[in-house]
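Possible regression after last week's pipeline update?

I re-ran a chain I had predicted before the update to compare outputs. Posting the input and the new output here so someone can diff against the archived version. Not blocking, just want to make sure nothing changed silently.
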Amino acid sequence: MKRMVLATLAMAMTLGVFTVNPARAHHSFAAEFDQNKPLKLTGKITSMRWANPHAWVYIDVTGEDGKVTNWGWETTAANTLYRRGWRKEDLTVGVAVTIEGYQARSGQPVANASAITLPDGKRLFAGAAPTEK
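New output (post-update):
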C-alpha cells in the first residue's frame, strides 16, 4: 500500500511539472512595442544583462539638449544571441553602438532591438522582426 501511495504521488508531481510550465505567459511583440515607431539611436553601453527569456542592452543616449537618457533595449534570449554570433566581449561598458529597433508603446525609454552596429561596423542581430512569429 505504501508503495502505491508513493508511486501515485511521484506520478502526480511529474505530471504537475509538465502541465505547469507550458502555461507560463509570454508577452507578444505587438502588445509591448509599436512596429510603426522604428527607432535608431547611438549611445554608449552602460550594461548588458545576459538573461532568458530576453537579454537586455542598456545605453546612455545624449539628446540634442544635452540631456542623457538611459535606454533599455530588449533582445531575444541570451542563448539565441550566442548562436547568432554574439559574445560577451563584443558589448563592453563604454563602447559606442548604434541600435535599431522599435519603441515601447508606453513611451518610456525602452525599445525592442532588431540590430546593433559596433564601432568596427559589425552588425549583431538582436531579435525577430515584428512580423515574425
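Follow-up from reviewer: compared with the archived run. Residues 27-125 form a domain with the OB fold (Dihydrolipoamide Acetyltransferase, E2P) fold (CATH 2.40.50.140). Marking as no regression found.
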